[in-house]
Amino acid sequence: MRDSMVRPLAASTAGDNAADVRAAGPVLTIRGVHQTFTARSGEVVEALDNINLEIAAGEFVAFVGISGCGKTTLMKIVGGLIAPTQGEVIYKGERVSGPIKDLGIVFQKPVLLEWRTVLRNITLQTSMRDLGSAAEQRRRAQDLLDRVGLTGYGDRFPWELSGGQQQRVSLCRALVHNPGLLLMDEPFGALDALTREQLQRDLEQMWLAQKPTVLFVTHDVGEAVCLADRVVVLAGKPGTVIANIRIGVGRARDADLLNNPKLQACAKEVRSVLLPNEPKADAVLTAIG
Amino acid sequence: MQSGQVVAGTNDRSRWLAPVSTPLWIVAYILVFGLIWEGATVALRPPDYLLPPLHSVLRYFAEQWPMLLKHAGVTAQETMLGFGAAVVGGIAVAFILDRFPRIAMLLWPSVLFAQITPKVAIAPLLLLWLGFGIESKVLIAFLISFFPILVNAHAGFRSIDEETAELARSMGVRGLRYFCRFQFPHALPRIFSGARIAINFALVGAVVGEFVGSDQGLGNLIILAARLLNSPLMFCTIILLMGMGALFFFTVGMCERWMIPWHVSHRRALQGGAARIGLQDA
Question: What are the chain B neighbours of A99 within 8 Å (beta carbons)?
Fold first, then answer.
Protein backbone atom coordinates (compact mmCIF):
# COMPACT_ATOMS: atom_id res chain seq x y z
CA MET A 1 0.00 0.00 0.00
CA ARG A 2 2.60 2.43 1.15
CA ASP A 3 4.76 1.81 -1.93
CA SER A 4 2.24 3.48 -4.15
CA MET A 5 2.69 6.72 -2.24
CA VAL A 6 6.42 6.71 -1.98
CA ARG A 7 6.96 5.59 -5.56
CA PRO A 8 8.79 8.38 -7.34
CA LEU A 9 6.46 10.33 -9.56
CA ALA A 10 7.19 13.24 -11.77
CA ALA A 11 6.37 16.49 -10.04
CA SER A 12 2.74 17.19 -10.81
CA THR A 13 0.21 19.86 -9.95
CA ALA A 14 -3.04 19.83 -8.04
CA GLY A 15 -5.50 16.99 -8.31
CA ASP A 16 -3.26 14.25 -9.65
CA ASN A 17 -2.70 12.56 -6.35
CA ALA A 18 -6.34 11.62 -5.84
CA ALA A 19 -6.01 8.15 -7.33
CA ASP A 20 -2.86 7.60 -5.37
CA VAL A 21 -4.44 8.48 -2.07
CA ARG A 22 -7.53 6.43 -2.78
CA ALA A 23 -5.35 3.34 -3.07
CA ALA A 24 -4.08 3.77 0.49
CA GLY A 25 -7.28 5.38 1.79
CA PRO A 26 -6.73 8.82 3.29
CA VAL A 27 -6.12 8.95 7.03
CA LEU A 28 -6.94 12.62 7.00
CA THR A 29 -9.61 14.38 4.98
CA ILE A 30 -10.06 18.12 5.02
CA ARG A 31 -13.40 18.99 3.48
CA GLY A 32 -14.64 22.46 2.65
CA VAL A 33 -12.86 24.19 5.49
CA HIS A 34 -13.51 27.92 5.86
CA GLN A 35 -12.15 29.99 8.69
CA THR A 36 -13.01 33.55 9.67
CA PHE A 37 -11.79 35.52 12.66
CA THR A 38 -13.27 38.60 14.23
CA ALA A 39 -10.51 41.12 14.78
CA ARG A 40 -10.54 43.31 17.88
CA SER A 41 -11.81 46.19 15.74
CA GLY A 42 -14.88 44.09 14.96
CA GLU A 43 -13.77 43.56 11.38
CA VAL A 44 -14.31 40.03 10.09
CA VAL A 45 -11.12 38.58 8.61
CA GLU A 46 -11.27 35.59 6.32
CA ALA A 47 -8.28 33.34 6.91
CA LEU A 48 -9.06 30.23 4.86
CA ASP A 49 -11.43 29.66 1.98
CA ASN A 50 -12.73 26.23 0.95
CA ILE A 51 -9.77 24.00 1.69
CA ASN A 52 -10.08 20.40 0.46
CA LEU A 53 -7.28 17.92 0.94
CA GLU A 54 -6.75 14.22 1.40
CA ILE A 55 -3.66 13.00 3.14
CA ALA A 56 -2.53 9.39 3.31
CA ALA A 57 -1.26 7.64 6.42
CA GLY A 58 2.46 8.19 6.87
CA GLU A 59 2.56 10.94 4.27
CA PHE A 60 4.84 13.92 4.84
CA VAL A 61 3.03 17.02 3.59
CA ALA A 62 4.61 20.46 3.60
CA PHE A 63 2.47 23.60 3.50
CA VAL A 64 4.18 26.51 1.84
CA GLY A 65 2.92 30.04 1.46
CA ILE A 66 3.61 33.68 2.13
CA SER A 67 3.07 34.73 5.77
CA GLY A 68 -0.54 35.40 6.59
CA CYS A 69 -2.03 32.94 4.14
CA GLY A 70 -3.47 30.79 6.91
CA LYS A 71 -1.00 27.88 6.96
CA THR A 72 -0.74 27.81 10.74
CA THR A 73 -4.49 28.20 11.17
CA LEU A 74 -5.10 25.25 8.86
CA MET A 75 -2.65 23.14 10.82
CA LYS A 76 -4.35 23.97 14.11
CA ILE A 77 -7.75 23.15 12.63
CA VAL A 78 -6.45 19.77 11.52
CA GLY A 79 -5.07 19.06 15.00
CA GLY A 80 -8.43 19.95 16.53
CA LEU A 81 -6.98 22.92 18.41
CA ILE A 82 -9.28 25.35 16.55
CA ALA A 83 -12.76 24.54 15.32
CA PRO A 84 -13.29 25.58 11.68
CA THR A 85 -16.01 28.14 10.94
CA GLN A 86 -17.30 25.85 8.20
CA GLY A 87 -16.39 22.43 6.88
CA GLU A 88 -14.90 19.46 8.63
CA VAL A 89 -11.80 17.42 9.20
CA ILE A 90 -12.01 13.64 9.28
CA TYR A 91 -9.13 11.83 10.98
CA LYS A 92 -9.05 8.04 11.09
CA GLY A 93 -12.69 7.91 10.11
CA GLU A 94 -13.89 10.29 12.81
CA ARG A 95 -14.89 13.91 12.60
CA VAL A 96 -12.40 16.02 14.56
CA SER A 97 -14.14 17.96 17.33
CA GLY A 98 -11.32 18.44 19.85
CA PRO A 99 -7.58 17.87 20.08
CA ILE A 100 -6.72 14.66 18.22
CA LYS A 101 -5.76 11.80 20.55
CA ASP A 102 -2.43 10.74 19.02
CA LEU A 103 -1.18 14.23 18.22
CA GLY A 104 2.39 15.48 18.40
CA ILE A 105 3.17 19.14 17.89
CA VAL A 106 6.33 21.21 17.34
CA PHE A 107 6.18 25.00 17.37
CA GLN A 108 8.57 27.57 16.00
CA LYS A 109 9.76 28.15 19.56
CA PRO A 110 10.83 25.11 21.59
CA VAL A 111 8.09 25.79 24.22
CA LEU A 112 9.88 23.79 26.91
CA LEU A 113 8.75 24.12 30.52
CA GLU A 114 11.61 25.89 32.26
CA TRP A 115 11.00 24.17 35.59
CA ARG A 116 11.46 20.69 34.14
CA THR A 117 14.72 19.10 33.11
CA VAL A 118 15.24 18.09 29.49
CA LEU A 119 14.27 14.48 30.18
CA ARG A 120 11.21 15.48 32.18
CA ASN A 121 10.13 17.84 29.44
CA ILE A 122 10.03 14.87 27.10
CA THR A 123 8.33 12.52 29.54
CA LEU A 124 5.73 15.25 30.14
CA GLN A 125 4.09 13.98 26.96
CA THR A 126 3.91 10.36 28.08
CA SER A 127 3.09 11.08 31.72
CA MET A 128 0.19 13.41 30.80
CA ARG A 129 -1.13 10.61 28.62
CA ASP A 130 -0.44 7.91 31.22
CA LEU A 131 1.63 5.85 28.80
CA GLY A 132 3.77 3.21 30.50
CA SER A 133 5.63 3.16 33.80
CA ALA A 134 7.92 6.01 34.82
CA ALA A 135 11.01 3.92 34.06
CA GLU A 136 9.65 2.93 30.67
CA GLN A 137 8.85 6.56 29.85
CA ARG A 138 12.36 7.65 30.84
CA ARG A 139 13.92 4.94 28.73
CA ARG A 140 11.97 5.97 25.64
CA ALA A 141 12.85 9.63 26.16
CA GLN A 142 16.49 8.69 26.62
CA ASP A 143 16.44 6.70 23.38
CA LEU A 144 15.18 9.69 21.46
CA LEU A 145 17.72 12.01 23.09
CA ASP A 146 20.47 9.64 22.02
CA ARG A 147 19.14 9.69 18.49
CA VAL A 148 19.29 13.49 18.20
CA GLY A 149 22.78 13.59 19.70
CA LEU A 150 21.83 14.86 23.15
CA THR A 151 23.12 11.92 25.18
CA GLY A 152 23.95 13.13 28.67
CA TYR A 153 21.78 16.24 28.48
CA GLY A 154 18.76 14.68 30.18
CA ASP A 155 19.38 16.23 33.59
CA ARG A 156 20.07 19.73 32.32
CA PHE A 157 17.51 22.50 32.29
CA PRO A 158 16.27 23.82 28.94
CA TRP A 159 17.95 27.19 29.42
CA GLU A 160 21.32 25.48 29.66
CA LEU A 161 20.94 24.33 26.03
CA SER A 162 21.39 26.23 22.77
CA GLY A 163 18.39 27.11 20.61
CA GLY A 164 19.04 24.20 18.24
CA GLN A 165 19.40 21.75 21.11
CA GLN A 166 16.17 23.01 22.65
CA GLN A 167 14.34 22.49 19.38
CA ARG A 168 15.69 18.93 19.25
CA VAL A 169 14.26 18.31 22.70
CA SER A 170 10.97 19.71 21.47
CA LEU A 171 11.09 17.27 18.53
CA CYS A 172 11.74 14.38 20.93
CA ARG A 173 8.77 15.45 23.04
CA ALA A 174 6.55 15.46 19.95
CA LEU A 175 7.63 11.93 18.98
CA VAL A 176 8.03 10.13 22.31
CA HIS A 177 4.45 8.82 22.35
CA ASN A 178 4.70 7.58 18.75
CA PRO A 179 2.03 9.96 17.41
CA GLY A 180 -0.09 9.19 14.40
CA LEU A 181 -0.16 12.83 13.37
CA LEU A 182 2.74 15.23 13.78
CA LEU A 183 2.11 18.95 13.30
CA MET A 184 5.12 21.17 12.80
CA ASP A 185 4.68 24.93 12.62
CA GLU A 186 7.82 26.44 11.07
CA PRO A 187 9.88 24.35 13.49
CA PHE A 188 13.29 25.30 12.13
CA GLY A 189 12.49 28.87 11.13
CA ALA A 190 14.36 30.46 14.03
CA LEU A 191 17.56 28.40 13.67
CA ASP A 192 20.81 29.15 11.87
CA ALA A 193 21.34 27.50 8.47
CA LEU A 194 23.71 24.72 9.58
CA THR A 195 21.65 23.71 12.61
CA ARG A 196 18.55 23.76 10.45
CA GLU A 197 20.09 21.36 7.94
CA GLN A 198 21.18 18.99 10.68
CA LEU A 199 17.71 19.04 12.21
CA GLN A 200 16.09 18.43 8.83
CA ARG A 201 18.24 15.32 8.50
CA ASP A 202 17.36 14.20 12.04
CA LEU A 203 13.68 14.77 11.36
CA GLU A 204 13.76 12.74 8.13
CA GLN A 205 15.45 9.84 9.93
CA MET A 206 12.98 9.91 12.79
CA TRP A 207 10.05 10.15 10.41
CA LEU A 208 11.36 7.18 8.42
CA ALA A 209 11.68 5.20 11.66
CA GLN A 210 8.20 5.97 13.03
CA LYS A 211 6.25 7.00 9.92
CA PRO A 212 3.73 9.38 11.44
CA THR A 213 1.63 11.50 9.11
CA VAL A 214 3.33 14.89 9.11
CA LEU A 215 1.93 18.33 8.37
CA PHE A 216 4.87 20.66 8.12
CA VAL A 217 4.32 24.42 7.79
CA THR A 218 7.19 26.43 6.38
CA HIS A 219 7.93 29.36 4.11
CA ASP A 220 11.25 27.89 3.05
CA VAL A 221 10.77 26.22 -0.33
CA GLY A 222 14.05 24.32 -0.14
CA GLU A 223 13.12 22.88 3.23
CA ALA A 224 9.69 21.85 1.96
CA VAL A 225 10.98 19.92 -1.05
CA CYS A 226 13.81 18.31 0.91
CA LEU A 227 11.47 16.91 3.51
CA ALA A 228 8.04 16.39 2.03
CA ASP A 229 6.35 13.77 -0.12
CA ARG A 230 4.01 16.50 -1.25
CA VAL A 231 4.10 20.26 -1.12
CA VAL A 232 0.79 22.07 -0.78
CA VAL A 233 1.05 25.70 -1.86
CA LEU A 234 -1.35 28.10 -0.17
CA ALA A 235 -1.84 31.66 -1.30
CA GLY A 236 -4.14 34.62 -1.12
CA LYS A 237 -6.21 36.27 1.55
CA PRO A 238 -8.19 34.25 2.47
CA GLY A 239 -5.83 31.36 1.82
CA THR A 240 -6.67 28.74 -0.78
CA VAL A 241 -4.75 25.76 -2.11
CA ILE A 242 -3.22 26.84 -5.42
CA ALA A 243 -1.01 23.84 -6.04
CA ASN A 244 -0.37 20.32 -4.83
CA ILE A 245 3.08 19.23 -5.92
CA ARG A 246 4.36 15.72 -5.43
CA ILE A 247 8.07 15.40 -4.71
CA GLY A 248 9.05 12.11 -6.31
CA VAL A 249 12.56 11.90 -4.95
CA GLY A 250 13.76 8.85 -3.04
CA ARG A 251 14.72 8.70 0.61
CA ALA A 252 16.79 9.43 2.52
CA ARG A 253 17.35 12.80 0.94
CA ASP A 254 19.53 14.09 3.79
CA ALA A 255 18.37 17.68 3.22
CA ASP A 256 20.88 17.84 0.38
CA LEU A 257 19.35 20.46 -1.91
CA LEU A 258 22.73 21.67 -3.17
CA ASN A 259 23.79 18.39 -4.76
CA ASN A 260 20.44 16.98 -5.81
CA PRO A 261 19.21 18.24 -9.21
CA LYS A 262 15.85 16.47 -8.79
CA LEU A 263 15.15 18.38 -5.58
CA GLN A 264 16.25 21.59 -7.27
CA ALA A 265 13.82 20.98 -10.11
CA CYS A 266 11.01 20.50 -7.59
CA ALA A 267 12.04 23.63 -5.75
CA LYS A 268 11.89 25.58 -9.01
CA GLU A 269 8.42 24.34 -9.69
CA VAL A 270 7.18 25.28 -6.22
CA ARG A 271 8.76 28.69 -6.56
CA SER A 272 7.17 29.26 -9.94
CA VAL A 273 3.75 28.61 -8.43
CA LEU A 274 4.46 30.63 -5.33
CA LEU A 275 5.98 33.61 -7.14
CA PRO A 276 4.49 33.55 -10.63
CA ASN A 277 5.45 37.14 -11.32
CA GLU A 278 9.09 36.75 -10.49
CA PRO A 279 11.14 37.19 -13.70
CA LYS A 280 13.00 33.91 -13.63
CA ALA A 281 13.21 31.70 -10.58
CA ASP A 282 15.76 29.56 -12.40
CA ALA A 283 18.35 32.30 -12.34
CA VAL A 284 18.27 32.48 -8.54
CA LEU A 285 18.44 28.75 -8.09
CA THR A 286 21.19 28.09 -10.61
CA ALA A 287 23.22 30.83 -9.00
CA ILE A 288 22.94 29.02 -5.68
CA GLY A 289 23.41 25.55 -7.20
CA MET B 1 48.55 34.48 33.75
CA GLN B 2 45.61 32.58 35.19
CA SER B 3 42.23 33.13 33.65
CA GLY B 4 40.68 33.62 37.11
CA GLN B 5 42.71 36.74 37.68
CA VAL B 6 41.66 38.19 34.38
CA VAL B 7 38.01 37.69 35.20
CA ALA B 8 38.36 39.20 38.67
CA GLY B 9 40.17 42.19 37.24
CA THR B 10 37.34 42.99 34.84
CA ASN B 11 34.94 43.96 37.62
CA ASP B 12 36.28 46.26 40.33
CA ARG B 13 33.29 45.89 42.61
CA SER B 14 33.41 42.13 42.72
CA ARG B 15 37.16 42.32 43.18
CA TRP B 16 37.29 44.25 46.41
CA LEU B 17 34.14 42.74 47.93
CA ALA B 18 34.54 39.20 46.68
CA PRO B 19 36.56 37.87 49.66
CA VAL B 20 33.83 38.94 52.13
CA SER B 21 30.93 36.51 52.28
CA THR B 22 27.53 38.16 52.46
CA PRO B 23 26.53 37.05 56.02
CA LEU B 24 29.88 38.28 57.29
CA TRP B 25 29.32 41.56 55.51
CA ILE B 26 25.97 42.03 57.22
CA VAL B 27 27.44 41.26 60.66
CA ALA B 28 30.20 43.77 60.04
CA TYR B 29 27.65 46.34 58.93
CA ILE B 30 25.60 45.90 62.10
CA LEU B 31 28.72 46.11 64.29
CA VAL B 32 29.79 49.39 62.72
CA PHE B 33 26.29 50.78 63.08
CA GLY B 34 26.23 49.75 66.77
CA LEU B 35 29.62 51.36 67.42
CA ILE B 36 28.46 54.66 65.89
CA TRP B 37 25.30 54.56 68.01
CA GLU B 38 27.20 53.81 71.19
CA GLY B 39 29.94 56.35 70.42
CA ALA B 40 27.50 59.11 69.55
CA THR B 41 25.32 58.64 72.65
CA VAL B 42 28.32 58.45 75.00
CA ALA B 43 29.92 61.55 73.45
CA LEU B 44 26.80 63.71 72.94
CA ARG B 45 24.74 62.47 75.92
CA PRO B 46 21.20 63.01 74.61
CA PRO B 47 18.43 62.52 77.21
CA ASP B 48 17.87 58.80 77.83
CA TYR B 49 14.17 58.91 76.95
CA LEU B 50 15.04 60.27 73.48
CA LEU B 51 17.96 58.00 72.58
CA PRO B 52 19.45 55.64 75.13
CA PRO B 53 23.02 54.40 74.64
CA LEU B 54 23.24 50.98 73.02
CA HIS B 55 24.64 49.32 76.14
CA SER B 56 21.58 50.17 78.23
CA VAL B 57 19.33 48.70 75.50
CA LEU B 58 21.44 45.55 75.49
CA ARG B 59 21.41 45.39 79.28
CA TYR B 60 17.62 45.68 79.27
CA PHE B 61 17.43 42.86 76.75
CA ALA B 62 19.76 40.67 78.85
CA GLU B 63 17.55 41.18 81.90
CA GLN B 64 14.15 40.96 80.23
CA TRP B 65 14.64 38.58 77.31
CA PRO B 66 12.16 35.89 78.42
CA MET B 67 9.38 38.49 78.62
CA LEU B 68 10.42 40.11 75.31
CA LEU B 69 10.61 36.83 73.43
CA LYS B 70 7.23 35.75 74.76
CA HIS B 71 5.65 38.87 73.27
CA ALA B 72 7.66 38.48 70.07
CA GLY B 73 6.30 34.94 69.81
CA VAL B 74 2.73 36.23 69.91
CA THR B 75 3.39 38.78 67.16
CA ALA B 76 5.20 36.16 65.07
CA GLN B 77 2.28 33.79 65.43
CA GLU B 78 -0.24 36.42 64.34
CA THR B 79 1.95 37.38 61.38
CA MET B 80 2.46 33.82 60.18
CA LEU B 81 -1.20 32.87 60.53
CA GLY B 82 -2.30 35.99 58.64
CA PHE B 83 0.35 35.52 55.98
CA GLY B 84 -0.37 31.81 55.61
CA ALA B 85 -4.06 32.55 55.16
CA ALA B 86 -3.19 35.25 52.61
CA VAL B 87 -1.04 32.85 50.59
CA VAL B 88 -3.69 30.16 50.52
CA GLY B 89 -6.56 32.61 50.04
CA GLY B 90 -4.76 34.75 47.48
CA ILE B 91 -3.86 31.77 45.31
CA ALA B 92 -7.34 30.29 45.66
CA VAL B 93 -9.11 33.54 44.72
CA ALA B 94 -6.68 34.12 41.84
CA PHE B 95 -7.47 30.60 40.61
CA ILE B 96 -11.21 31.31 40.73
CA LEU B 97 -10.82 34.70 39.03
CA ASP B 98 -8.78 33.08 36.27
CA ARG B 99 -10.89 29.99 35.78
CA PHE B 100 -14.48 31.09 36.29
CA PRO B 101 -15.19 34.38 34.51
CA ARG B 102 -18.77 34.55 35.77
CA ILE B 103 -17.81 34.14 39.41
CA ALA B 104 -14.95 36.54 38.75
CA MET B 105 -17.44 39.24 37.78
CA LEU B 106 -19.15 38.81 41.13
CA LEU B 107 -15.91 38.59 43.06
CA TRP B 108 -13.79 41.39 41.59
CA PRO B 109 -15.76 44.31 43.02
CA SER B 110 -15.65 42.94 46.55
CA VAL B 111 -11.95 42.14 46.24
CA LEU B 112 -11.26 45.67 45.01
CA PHE B 113 -13.51 47.10 47.69
CA ALA B 114 -11.52 45.23 50.33
CA GLN B 115 -8.32 46.58 48.85
CA ILE B 116 -9.31 50.25 48.66
CA THR B 117 -10.47 50.21 52.28
CA PRO B 118 -7.50 51.35 54.41
CA LYS B 119 -6.90 48.41 56.71
CA VAL B 120 -5.33 50.59 59.38
CA ALA B 121 -8.44 52.74 59.46
CA ILE B 122 -10.75 49.80 60.05
CA ALA B 123 -8.46 48.11 62.58
CA PRO B 124 -10.41 49.52 65.60
CA LEU B 125 -13.65 48.29 64.05
CA LEU B 126 -12.24 44.82 63.51
CA LEU B 127 -11.13 44.79 67.14
CA LEU B 128 -14.64 45.68 68.23
CA TRP B 129 -16.00 42.84 66.15
CA LEU B 130 -13.47 40.15 66.92
CA GLY B 131 -12.27 41.11 70.40
CA PHE B 132 -8.83 41.77 71.82
CA GLY B 133 -7.39 38.29 71.24
CA ILE B 134 -5.13 37.28 68.38
CA GLU B 135 -8.02 36.68 65.95
CA SER B 136 -8.40 40.38 65.14
CA LYS B 137 -4.64 40.76 64.54
CA VAL B 138 -4.53 37.70 62.32
CA LEU B 139 -7.40 39.14 60.31
CA ILE B 140 -5.66 42.52 59.86
CA ALA B 141 -2.40 40.79 58.88
CA PHE B 142 -4.37 38.67 56.41
CA LEU B 143 -6.25 41.59 54.87
CA ILE B 144 -3.14 43.68 54.43
CA SER B 145 -1.02 40.90 52.84
CA PHE B 146 -3.75 39.25 50.78
CA PHE B 147 -3.78 41.64 47.84
CA PRO B 148 -0.11 41.49 46.74
CA ILE B 149 -0.36 37.71 46.58
CA LEU B 150 -3.69 37.72 44.77
CA VAL B 151 -2.55 40.22 42.15
CA ASN B 152 0.73 38.45 41.48
CA ALA B 153 -0.78 34.97 41.38
CA HIS B 154 -3.53 36.14 39.05
CA ALA B 155 -1.04 37.81 36.71
CA GLY B 156 1.06 34.64 36.81
CA PHE B 157 -1.86 32.37 35.93
CA ARG B 158 -2.85 34.62 33.03
CA SER B 159 0.63 35.13 31.62
CA ILE B 160 1.10 31.59 30.35
CA ASP B 161 1.79 31.85 26.62
CA GLU B 162 -0.50 30.66 23.87
CA GLU B 163 1.86 27.94 22.63
CA THR B 164 2.24 26.37 26.07
CA ALA B 165 -1.53 26.30 26.41
CA GLU B 166 -1.81 24.67 22.99
CA LEU B 167 0.88 22.16 23.90
CA ALA B 168 -1.14 21.19 26.96
CA ARG B 169 -4.29 20.84 24.90
CA SER B 170 -2.46 18.71 22.33
CA MET B 171 -1.62 16.36 25.20
CA GLY B 172 -5.25 16.28 26.26
CA VAL B 173 -4.46 18.13 29.50
CA ARG B 174 -7.34 20.18 30.88
CA GLY B 175 -8.87 21.43 34.11
CA LEU B 176 -7.12 20.96 37.42
CA ARG B 177 -4.29 19.00 35.84
CA TYR B 178 -3.50 21.93 33.56
CA PHE B 179 -3.50 24.19 36.60
CA CYS B 180 -1.18 21.95 38.64
CA ARG B 181 1.28 21.00 35.91
CA PHE B 182 1.38 24.14 33.76
CA GLN B 183 -0.21 27.25 35.26
CA PHE B 184 0.85 26.97 38.87
CA PRO B 185 4.58 26.28 38.29
CA HIS B 186 4.57 29.02 35.67
CA ALA B 187 3.08 31.47 38.18
CA LEU B 188 5.32 30.48 41.13
CA PRO B 189 8.02 33.13 40.52
CA ARG B 190 5.38 35.84 40.55
CA ILE B 191 3.66 34.38 43.58
CA PHE B 192 6.97 34.56 45.41
CA SER B 193 7.44 38.20 44.39
CA GLY B 194 4.06 38.86 45.96
CA ALA B 195 4.96 36.83 49.05
CA ARG B 196 8.15 38.82 49.64
CA ILE B 197 6.09 41.99 49.82
CA ALA B 198 3.23 40.38 51.69
CA ILE B 199 5.26 38.87 54.54
CA ASN B 200 6.39 42.27 55.80
CA PHE B 201 2.93 43.75 55.22
CA ALA B 202 1.58 40.99 57.44
CA LEU B 203 3.99 41.95 60.23
CA VAL B 204 2.87 45.59 59.96
CA GLY B 205 -0.74 44.41 60.12
CA ALA B 206 -0.15 42.39 63.28
CA VAL B 207 1.64 45.29 65.02
CA VAL B 208 -1.08 47.78 64.04
CA GLY B 209 -3.67 45.42 65.48
CA GLU B 210 -1.71 45.27 68.72
CA PHE B 211 -1.40 49.06 68.81
CA VAL B 212 -5.14 49.41 68.74
CA GLY B 213 -5.78 47.08 71.60
CA SER B 214 -4.13 44.06 73.13
CA ASP B 215 -2.45 42.87 76.29
CA GLN B 216 0.38 41.05 74.54
CA GLY B 217 2.64 41.27 71.50
CA LEU B 218 5.42 43.63 70.47
CA GLY B 219 2.93 46.32 69.32
CA ASN B 220 1.51 46.32 72.82
CA LEU B 221 5.03 46.70 74.28
CA ILE B 222 5.72 49.72 72.04
CA ILE B 223 2.59 51.49 73.27
CA LEU B 224 3.54 50.60 76.83
CA ALA B 225 7.13 51.84 76.39
CA ALA B 226 5.90 55.14 74.98
CA ARG B 227 3.55 55.70 77.90
CA LEU B 228 6.24 54.88 80.47
CA LEU B 229 8.99 56.74 78.55
CA ASN B 230 10.91 53.47 78.80
CA SER B 231 13.25 53.96 75.87
CA PRO B 232 15.38 50.80 76.36
CA LEU B 233 12.16 48.75 76.12
CA MET B 234 11.12 50.77 73.07
CA PHE B 235 14.40 50.10 71.28
CA CYS B 236 14.50 46.42 72.26
CA THR B 237 11.06 46.01 70.73
CA ILE B 238 11.96 47.85 67.55
CA ILE B 239 15.15 45.81 67.13
CA LEU B 240 13.19 42.61 67.71
CA LEU B 241 10.66 43.65 65.08
CA MET B 242 13.45 44.37 62.63
CA GLY B 243 15.06 41.03 63.34
CA MET B 244 11.73 39.29 62.92
CA GLY B 245 11.06 41.09 59.63
CA ALA B 246 14.47 40.06 58.33
CA LEU B 247 13.95 36.47 59.46
CA PHE B 248 10.57 36.24 57.70
CA PHE B 249 11.93 37.87 54.56
CA PHE B 250 14.90 35.50 54.38
CA THR B 251 12.70 32.49 55.07
CA VAL B 252 10.48 33.39 52.13
CA GLY B 253 13.64 33.89 50.02
CA MET B 254 14.94 30.48 51.07
CA CYS B 255 11.65 28.80 50.20
CA GLU B 256 11.80 30.55 46.86
CA ARG B 257 15.28 29.31 46.07
CA TRP B 258 14.34 25.85 47.20
CA MET B 259 11.10 25.71 45.19
CA ILE B 260 12.08 27.55 42.00
CA PRO B 261 15.83 27.04 41.56
CA TRP B 262 15.17 27.00 37.81
CA HIS B 263 13.94 30.57 37.61
CA VAL B 264 16.04 33.25 35.87
CA SER B 265 16.69 35.02 39.18
CA HIS B 266 18.40 31.94 40.67
CA ARG B 267 20.15 30.46 37.68
CA ARG B 268 23.54 31.95 38.36
CA ALA B 269 23.69 30.32 41.77
CA LEU B 270 22.63 27.01 40.21
CA GLN B 271 25.37 27.33 37.63
CA GLY B 272 27.95 28.18 40.29
CA GLY B 273 28.30 31.80 39.25
CA ALA B 274 30.56 34.35 40.93
CA ALA B 275 29.78 35.58 44.44
CA ARG B 276 27.14 38.27 44.39
CA ILE B 277 26.34 41.03 46.79
CA GLY B 278 22.73 41.55 47.80
CA LEU B 279 20.22 40.83 50.50
CA GLN B 280 18.80 37.75 48.80
CA ASP B 281 22.11 35.98 49.02
CA ALA B 282 22.48 35.91 52.76
Answer: 169-170, 172
